[in-house]
């Protein structure tokens, strides 16, 4: 069944289509949740909550071509994750963040030479607010002004968080290569 047919059947409440949707997208949506939530159990809870929201919101989905279903779902899951951070108020301190100087910038080859799981672990080790802003910038490809509007923080805070994330990740990459040098 193609994506359009699947979305139409889900909108009608077809249980087999909803089950198929879950099977097709659970892995991708769990990846979204894990990027925003460093605790795997919380990420799994967010996955379930996100699918409940998706199942209840199909009346709002509008087909815009191939890939629009996945993009729509990803926005729902991202917003679900962001809601958790708004409730926890982890972004309150984003405006008072000092930017760490970047003394080392890894090359593309160095980054490509690190297993994806390790890189995702580095991202998961970032402080919550920094990780949140980094994920929105890198994985969701949002501009600082969009992130600022979505999170209700100043654009300069977004820029500071991105600089801080870059500096911390550079230190982690350097540490990885120091430990794994032949």
Q: Which regions are unreliable across 5 or more consecutive residues at pLDDT < 50?
A: 93-99
Q: What is the N-to-C succession of helices and strands?
A: HHHHHHHHH
Overall domain count: 2
Strand content: under 5%
Number of DSSP helices?
A: 9
Largest sheet: none
CATH topology value of the largest domain = Arc Repressor Mutant, subunit A
CATH architecture of the largest domain: Orthogonal Bundle
DSSP summary, beta strand count: 0
- The CATH class assignment of the largest domain is Mainly Alpha
The level of helicity is 55-70%
Distance between the termini: 49 Å
Would you kindly provide a written description of the structure presented here, covering whatever features stand out?
The protein folds into two domains: 86 residues, Rna Polymerase Sigma Factor, Chain: A, CATH 1.10.1740.10; 88 residues, Winged helix-like DNA-binding domain superfamily/Winged helix DNA-binding domain (Arc Repressor Mutant, subunit A, Orthogonal Bundle), CATH 1.10.10. Helix content is 70%, strand content 0%. The chain is built from nine helices and no strands. The protein is globular. It starts with a helix and ends with a helix.
Provide the fold topology.
Layout: H1 3-11, H2 15-36, H3 40-56, H4 68-88, H5 108-112, H6 116-124, H7 128-138, H8 144-151, H9 155-179
Highlighted features:
182 residues, Rna Polymerase Sigma Factor, Chain: A, Arc Repressor Mutant, subunit A, 2 domains
